[in-house]
Known about the structure:
This protein is mainly alpha-helical. It has helices at 2-26, 37-43, 56-66, 80-91, 93-98, 155-172; strands at 70-74, 103-107, 125-129.
Amino acid sequence: AMEKSYLSIFLLLIAVSCVLAKDAGKKDTKDTTAKPKLPQTLSRGWGDQLIWTQTYEEALFRSKHSQKPLMIIHHLEDCPHSQALKKVFAEHKDIQKLAEKFILLNLVYETTDKNLAPDGQYVPRILFIDPTLTVRADITGRYSNRLYAYEPSDISLLYSNMQKALKLLKSEL
């Protein structure tokens, strides 16, 4: 396990140095519209200023220790439904603000945890997990055939589901 963590730190250092090298070559062209380059990789466009975890295991660990609920977004880069949802999610100011109260993870692959696919492995789907590491299968969207799917038009439902995930937490701890 030790070698693994060294490896990931080493890879991270390489990534950081590549970004720094790129920026150094630009000299003083102050482009204020440029988004910060590092967070982009983990956010994958779902909210570049939010803090995203890298793996499911790390997300569970952080949720448990911070007592914050975990929000997991399964999506695919080449799925138009995922892209459309991502766009409204990233542009929704209230959702971006509320998301700061969660441990956040977005995944473009399936985990081996069957609890994250209560009714199948489709994208996009969003699930909430509380700090006791229980998947909140009761927090659903509006489609009976895909309980955890959200369309762009469901963004306010997603927002209220995020509020619900936080409220349940307070009442139960």
